[in-house]
């Protein structure tokens, strides 16, 4: 079983659409939506709920106003500016990191750490395979713990069902949730776009992927917006030891399919279909390859065909 | 001073484009400070091209255990709620990437064996882009300190007539840290199911924080009418629409502000800015 995680750095490059498209081609898969504070994969897969679990984040400090003498020691000790003292001390739950330092220094034992419900996670069945996904309550901490729980559940499901692939749709950015999506993964598929911002953010996520020593490949979505930048991205990818997995031009089929609530293949024309099939072949080959680096170079961008180059 | 945050929920809807364009329009007649709070992927600077005149690291204090004083009692590890410090039979191990810098281990150590050393988790840079004051936060690769770096860049705010906060995507703690204390949030969305889904979450965060909302529908025409229906039924003010236009994407791809090159974009942003100013005059 190989786990492929889909990241981008920049938001909106097409991670979710591409994940669903590749899942349609991959045969037996398990899917995980690790973009827990903006989960969208479920919108393409018409999931049927199988089980649901609550998720509690890190316990947060709560002050008992009856015991509090407003001495202010907790406010002084808090390094996150999460406590204000009026008639009693009050903890700002948004800023509280749950470290417990206030509890340690309160002379009246007026502070306790209370678990906070942060959201829930689910396992659903879809036509493409099981989907593990979550909904984080807005504004909640997104420390990556929920992502880890999802990945563990998905890995278990994949092992039990004998699925060949686990595809994880990742979050944008390079912080805690992206790191939790990435650690220990078999392969990182980096979906970028042919824009300056996309390129800059690709460099950031590529550095993250290199930091964690995960083999990676780069797929350029919306590639026809700027073919100069697409070429520079491919140069960068090769130099960075990432596989070049192909280019996908802008195609109204993506929005059409999304509006219909299905993965793009159902709405794709022949050219896009062939392009995506080639991309999946490249991804599957590279993800299974033991050698590093192993690069595929597009020989005809407008037709979207590829050939293996060693 | 009026703080206007530009957020979305969904990534890639046009937050930075709108934030930078609004800054450019407002700066013609007012003092403006733009703070790029998308610290994991700050891109406003690509368009504003500021001359940076100040840069400083964002530091987090990480424990150092003095082997002479330490008797391996393990109290530090027990006190740590982030599994960032572990006691083995031979030594204490510290994991800086997991450490929140809270100081619990220091307080827990009965022998005073723990001191702290500062570790960089990011950087804040400031400068001038023409008439626009500019600051951006950047998270160090591999660090887990997004909210801390957002707080650090927000502390660079100067007393300008308008402070524009370019927010990160998502709807969790980084968005909350950016919206907290804003006078208005402009939620930039796209008329698609993904756009709508994430917009509803961003609206919940803004309402939770009591920040009044104005919606901008970007790439109008590229999707369907559900975002419009949602705004109408939820009592959300639509500040304006930006029509779907490939030329905008192409200018953006080159790092160019579409404001100068593309008339229908310029018109749309002028209308949005005018509507905003009506609601929150300087």
Characterization of the model:
The complex is a heterodimer of chains A (310) and B (282). With 310 residues, chain A is of the alpha/beta class. Chain A contains nine helices and 15 strands. Chain A has helices spanning 15-25, 73-77, 101-105, 145-161, 176-182, 196-211, 227-239, 253-260, 270-288, and strands spanning 2-7, 29-33, 48-56, 60-63, 83-85, 89-91, 111-114, 117-126, 129-136, 165-169, 187-193, 216-221, 243-248, 296-300, 305-308. In chain A, the strands form four sheets. Chain A has a nine-stranded mixed sheet, sandwiched between helices. A two-stranded antiparallel sheet of chain A has the order 4-7. Chain A has a two-stranded antiparallel sheet with strand order 5-6. In chain A, strand 12 (216-221), helix 7 and strand 13 (243-248) form a beta-alpha-beta unit. The longest helix of chain A has 19 residues, at 270-288. The two termini of chain A are 25 Å apart. Chain B is an alpha/beta fold. In chain B, 55% of the residues are buried. The model of chain B has no long low-confidence stretch (mean pLDDT 96). The interface between A and B is large, with 63 and 58 residues.
Which of globular, elongated, flat, extended, rod-shaped describes the shape of chain A?
elongated
What number is the mean pLDDT of chain A? 92
Strand order of the largest sheet of chain A: 3-8-9-2-10-1-11-12-13
Say what oligomer this is.
heterodimer
Spatial arrangement of strands, main beta sheet of chain B: 3-6-7-2-8-1-9-10-11
Instruction: Find the structural class of chain A using helix and strand composition.
Output: alpha/beta
The number of helical elements of chain B comes to 11
Helix content of chain A: 25-40%
State the largest interface.
A-B, 63 and 58 residues
Beta-sheet strand percentage of chain B? 25-35%
Mean pLDDT metric of chain B:
96
Beta-strand proportion of chain A: 25-35%
The residue ranges of chain A in which pLDDT falls below 50 over 5 or more consecutive positions are 293-310
Largest sheet of chain A: 9 strands, mixed
């Amino acid at each position: 079983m190989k786990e492929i995680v889909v990241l981008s750095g920049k938001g909106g490059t097409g991670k979710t659409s591409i994940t669903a498209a590749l899942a349609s081609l991959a045969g037996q898969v398990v899917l995980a939506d690790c973009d827990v504070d903006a989960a969208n994969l479920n919108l393409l897969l018409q999931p049927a709920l199988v089980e649901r679990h609550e998720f509690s984040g890190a316990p947060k400090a709560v002050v008992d106003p009856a015991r509090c003498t407003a001495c202010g020691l907790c406010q002084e000790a808090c390094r996150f500016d999460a406590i204000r003292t009026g008639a009693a001390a009050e903890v700002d739950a948004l800023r509280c990191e749950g470290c417990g330092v206030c509890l340690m220094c309160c002379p009246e034992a007026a502070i306790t750490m209370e678990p906070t419900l942060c959201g829930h996670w689910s396992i659903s069945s879809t036509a493409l395979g099981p989907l593990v996904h979550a909904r984080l309550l807005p504004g909640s901490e997104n420390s990556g713990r929920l992502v880890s729980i999802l990945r563990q559940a998905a890995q278990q499901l994949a092992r039990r069902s004998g699925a060949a692939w686990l595809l994880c749709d990742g979050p944008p950015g390079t912080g805690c949730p992206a790191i939790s999506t990435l650690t220990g993964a078999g392969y990182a598929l980096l979906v970028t776009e042919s824009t300056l911002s996309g390129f800059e953010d690709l460099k950031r996520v590529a550095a993250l992927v290199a930091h964690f020593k995960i083999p990676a490949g780069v797929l350029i979505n919306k590639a026809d917006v700027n073919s100069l930048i697409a070429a520079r991205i491919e140069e960068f990818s090769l130099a960075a030891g990432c596989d070049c997995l192909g280019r996908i031009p802008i195609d109204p089929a993506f929005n059409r399919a999304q509006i219909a609530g299905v993965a793009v293949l159902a709405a794709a024309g022949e050219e896009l279909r062939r392009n995506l099939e080639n991309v999946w072949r490249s991804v599957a080959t590279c993800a299974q390859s033991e050698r590093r680096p192993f690069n595929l170079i597009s020989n005809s961008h407008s037709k979207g065909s590829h050939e293996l180059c060693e | 001073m009026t703080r206007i945050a530009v957020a979305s929920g969904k990534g890639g809807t046009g937050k930075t484009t709108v934030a930078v364009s609004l800054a450019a329009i407002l700066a013609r007649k007012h003092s403006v400070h733009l703070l790029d709070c998308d610290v994991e992927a700050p891109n406003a600077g690509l368009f504003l091209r500021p001359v940076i005149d100040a840069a400083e690291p964002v530091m987090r204090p990480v424990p150092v255990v003095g082997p002479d004083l330490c008797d391996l009692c393990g109290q530090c590890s027990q006190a740590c709620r982030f599994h960032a410090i572990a006691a083995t039979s031979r030594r204490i191990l510290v994991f800086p990437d997991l450490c929140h810098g809270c100081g619990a281990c220091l307080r827990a150590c009965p022998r005073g064996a723990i001191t702290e050393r500062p570790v960089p988790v990011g950087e804040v840079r400031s400068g001038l882009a023409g008439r626009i004051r500019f600051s951006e936060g950047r998270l160090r690769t591999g660090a887990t300190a997004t909210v801390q770096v957002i707080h650090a860049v927000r502390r660079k705010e100067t007393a300008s007539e308008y402070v524009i906060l370019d927010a990160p995507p998502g709807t969790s703690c980084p968005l909350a840290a950016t919206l907290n204390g804003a006078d208005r949030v402009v939620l930039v969305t796209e008329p698609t199911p993904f756009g709508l889904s994430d917009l509803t979450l961003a609206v919940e965060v803004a309402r939770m924080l009591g920040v009044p909302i104005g919606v901008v529908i970007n790439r109008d025409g590229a999707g369907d009418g559900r975002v419009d229906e949602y705004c109408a039924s939820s009592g959300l003010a639509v500040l304006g629409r930006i029509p779907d236009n490939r030329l905008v994407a192409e200018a953006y791809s080159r790092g160019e502000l579409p404001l100068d090159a593309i008339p229908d974009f310029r018109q749309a942003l002028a209308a949005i800015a005018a509507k905003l100013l009506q609601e929150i005059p300087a």
